[in-house]
Amino acid sequence: MTSSLALSNGLRMPQIGLGVYLVTDVAVCESSVKAALDSGYRLIDTAMAYRNERAVGRGIRSSGVPRDEIFLTTKLWPSDYGYEKARAAIAASLERLDCGHIDLLLQHQPVGDVQGAWRAMEEAVDAGTVRAIGVSNFTAADLGELLPKARIAPVVDQVELHPHWQQPDLLPYLAAHDIVPEAWYPLGHGARKLLDEPAVASAARAHGKSAVQVILRWHVQRGFVAIPKSTDPAHIAANIDVFDFELTAGEMADINALGKERPMFRMPRRLMKAVMPLARPRALP
Ligand SMILES: NC(=O)c1ccc[n+]([C@@H]2O[C@H](COP(=O)([O-])OP(=O)(O)OC[C@H]3O[C@@H](n4cnc5c(N)ncnc54)[C@H](OP(=O)(O)O)[C@@H]3O)[C@@H](O)[C@H]2O)c1
């Protein structure tokens, strides 16, 4: 079973969840979500842009886990920003998921009419169709623009975050504003150069765990939410089996020392602004 963190609006969010980015095969997505829920996960992370919301919803409904035990996240893509478009996109997402409500709705990227979309997201919270709202890929500067105009504060910023990229500028800002850091690429997208780090391997040997489990435990002890993606049932089960050991202060320090100066994924802001508001995600058939 996973531990959870208190969000600034009082909701609790599990610290380990299943990410389903690039899991576009309907049957695989549905069975992965069901396998995760069977293994004790209670957080599922999808997005309108992943084109798998219907399959996620089916996986949740077929799991037999009561809906109120599950924390379901989805994200608005910038082609749906602006007040009117965001309202319509939220309604369409609720219909595709078919799970009653969305626990956490994120703005996927900080480009386009962020303010208009935020207003539509706030109204969805007022209406009870969405329980909490947040952002993804926002820098401290992006949040600095949004926060003064937000009636409802963002509870989470989902960003690239793993031992090789520890967001040195953003994390202090998030802590100061009571925004939980949520890690995408929590395993560095599965890159061997991260999994094979000697500090990770040594902790894995000491605790009889895998490198992946050590990295996920590091996220938990740092106070992050992490959403590793897997479609392999054995990996899915292993990735939540990280609550029976604790990394020592020395092991945490050795992994903290692995931080590098650049993220793995980089896209210039001018390209994001030019491309993302045009790329409208297609719904599943
Ligand atoms: N907001 C954003 O802009 C954004 C961007 C990227 C990702 N995300 C979210 O973050 C989630 C995770 O990111 P990600 O999928 O790119 O990277 P990731 O979770 O860091 O890594 C996934 C890779 O690790 C492998 N893996 C998982 N568990 C493993 C295990 N126990 N042993 C060995 N290999 C394992 C997976 O392969 P197998 O499937 O074979 O296990 C996959 O190749 C996404 O699914 C999505 O929900 C958000």
Automatic annotation (TrEMBL):
<comment type="similarity">
    <text>Belongs to the aldo/keto reductase family.</text>
</comment>
<dbReference type="Pfam" id="PF00248">
    <property type="entry name" value="Aldo_ket_red"/>
</dbReference>
<protein>
    <submittedName>
        <fullName>Aldo/keto reductase</fullName>
    </submittedName>
</protein>
<keyword id="KW-0560">Oxidoreductase</keyword>
<dbReference type="InterPro" id="IPR020471">
    <property type="entry name" value="AKR"/>
</dbReference>
<dbReference type="InterPro" id="IPR023210">
    <property type="entry name" value="NADP_OxRdtase_dom"/>
</dbReference>
<dbReference type="InterPro" id="IPR018170">
    <property type="entry name" value="Aldo/ket_reductase_CS"/>
</dbReference>
<keyword id="KW-0521">NADP</keyword>
<feature type="domain" description="NADP-dependent oxidoreductase">
    <location>
        <begin position="33"/>
        <end position="258"/>
    </location>
</feature>
<dbReference type="InterPro" id="IPR036812">
    <property type="entry name" value="NAD(P)_OxRdtase_dom_sf"/>
</dbReference>
